[in-house]
Amino acid sequence: MQFGDETFRKIVARARVYFRRNWRRALRIRERLRFSEETFHLILAGAVGVLGGFVNLLFYLCTESVTKLVLRHTGDPVEVAEILGWWQRLVTPMLGGLAAGLVLHWGLRLVRQKGSSNLLEVVVAGDGRLPFRVGLVKTLSSLLSIGSGASIGREGGIVQLAATLASKGGQLANWQPYRLRLLVACGAASGIAGAYNAPVAGAVFAALIVLGNFSMNMFAPLVFASVISSIVSRSFFAMEPRYVVPAFAITSLTQLPWFLLLGVLTGVAGAAFLKMLHWSEERFQLLRLPIYARLALGGLLVGIIALAYPGVWGNGYVMTNRILRGQYAGELLPVLFLTGLVLAKVLATLATVGSGAVGGVFTPTLFLGAGLGCVFGTALHELGEAGGLPTGAFALVGMGSVLAATTHSPLLAMILVFEISLNYSLMPPLMLACVVSSLLARQLHPESIYTAPLHFKQLTVDRESSRIGAATEQTVGELMREPVPPIRETVKLRKIAERFLSSANNFLPVVDAKQCLLGIVALQDLKAYLNAGDEMGAVIAYDVMRPLPPCVTPNQRLLDALPTVLASEQRNVPVVNSFKEYRLVGAVDRAEVLGRLSEAIAAGSHTKT
User: d(Cα 524, Cα 157) in Å, to the nearest integer?
Assistant: First the structure.
């Protein structure tokens, strides 16, 4: 059968109409099925939550295996220490510290991976990239320290590993820094939620401490990750509260002043503990010993203390429960015994953390708070005061108020202590003590246990704006993208010219071996060398680069960064981690920053009119 030209044209036209209609219909279906940014972040948070739950299980199994391998027993380190001979208590932490230090010493040399492994630093002053191999080395070192009786908690390793794996997944997908930072925060939330079976505290920890942002587009993924992680952990571990204290109803105003006084005491103690931690780290650094020698020395100090107080081994979980249940009330001179136990735990924690051991201080801090609260309650009873209040009530409130003093976050302390004890009867005095303790600790020691390392690097962490409701104000970090690929200061002129020819950039950042920004090379500055002969072959980037350009940091608000952006002649303004190190971590588009600010100003003007 043959068709004429007219018939053929009609068939083609009908086919075009048919395919056009169906193509548009397919596009509409695809648009309906496409996930929004918020939905996609919830899906990612759920995956990170599953990851966090299994990391919690894996870390538990590994620490139990290390404990059995090193100590030939299983169970909590305190229970093991109490059945060991005196020489084993003395030597085991030292050998464990030596092994953990050797892992750090040789492991970090072998991986040679750059970048900070501090969660808060990569969020506040970085691009959300946690080095994977460094994280694995530190996890192995943490396992050896914990398994041999070091006075640190498991939660630090769990949070670090979960956040590192989440960040690595985002790096493999080549996602933008703002999403990597969210993944790090979700990993931290899932780690806390899994370790303590505390989903609300996990989300609040990541929002307050890591992100400093309670906006719903940030907080919703944190909640999702925390809930999934806690449910996964509950499928492996019991759901009972980790710490048990008898319920006690606060029914009289005359009972509250004792807890206010406890808040004052714990606020002073928390600030003093932070200062002593800093002092201990400085003293160990002044020894100028290799890391394995420092950790061995720290372990030896823990072993010496454990000769008299074996309860200083481990994170203090068993000891805290004993204090809450009043098991030491029958001791001869209980106030002196508990005071000695608390001071011994403080010294053991200072030796462990100060020497550089990798681990958490959350659980040891809870132990110190419980001990201090029990000492306070027992002393009141010895004096004939507060007879109707059990010492366990003071111990539980002391746990929360010391945690509030060290983290400067009373909300986090209230929620965590409630979730790990499921004791609502003591919430009123707990809330008062946490607030008083946090306010006093801030006055005595402005930096929290998490911001102190960043303060040492001159990195500012502004959390106040988020606390007073300005969490929606955008920062440079929220718009930051990958930096313009830099060149080393030793790159020769010909290579620089090739880079300009293969890209649309008019400026190239110049960095040193540590990725610290030294200056920039401008395309127009190379025009004088274009007709040069072979005599210019020895010219390198350092010879032709300009001085340091205007830079911004990730934690700067856009409004604060506006003068720098306006002063820059570059399309991609460099972003550095701090104005002390000047390590190149990203770039922001100048036009995008100005556009965002223009939209905000226009919206504000429209609202006023």
Answer: 50
Model pTM score: 0.78
Establish if 244 belongs to a structural domain: no
Distances 448 to 454, 466, 585 between C-alpha atoms, Å: 10, 16, 25
Task: State the amino acid at position 162 in one-letter form.
Answer: A
Residue 6, pLDDT score: 63
CATH code of 311's domain = 1.10.3080.10
pLDDT score of 138:
92
* For the chain, the helix, strand and coil percentages under 3-state DSSP, each to the nearest 5: 65, 5, 25
Contact 590, 507 (CB under 8 A): no
| Whether 490 and 539 share a structural domain | yes
Which DSSP category does 211 fall into?
A: I
User: What are 10-63's pLDDT values in tens digits?
Assistant: 665 666 665 566 655 654 554 555 567 788 889 999 999 999 999 999 999 998
The number of folded domains in the chain is 4
CB-based contact 366:404 (threshold 8 Å): no
Q: Is residue 57 part of a domain?
A: yes
Give the Cα separation of 379 and 260 in Å (integer): 16
Q: What DSSP letter does each residue of 226-286 carry, written as one string?
A: HHHHHHHHHTTS--S-SS---------GGGHHHHHHHHHHHHHHHHHHHHHHHHHHHHHHH
Q: Which of 467, 502, 518 is the endpoint of a domain?
A: 467
Q: Do residues 220 and 316 both lie within one domain?
A: no
Residue 153 makes CB contacts below 8 A (sequence gap 6+) with 146, 315, 316, 359, 360, 361, 362, 363, 364
DSSP state of 392: H
In this structure, are 441 and 510 located in the same domain?
A: no
| Segment 327-340 mean pLDDT | 77
Q: Which domain covers residue 18, as residue numbers?
A: 1-34
Per-residue model confidence as pLDDT tens digits over 344-381? 999 999 999 999 999 888 889 999 999 999 999 999 98
281 and 384 fall within a common domain: yes
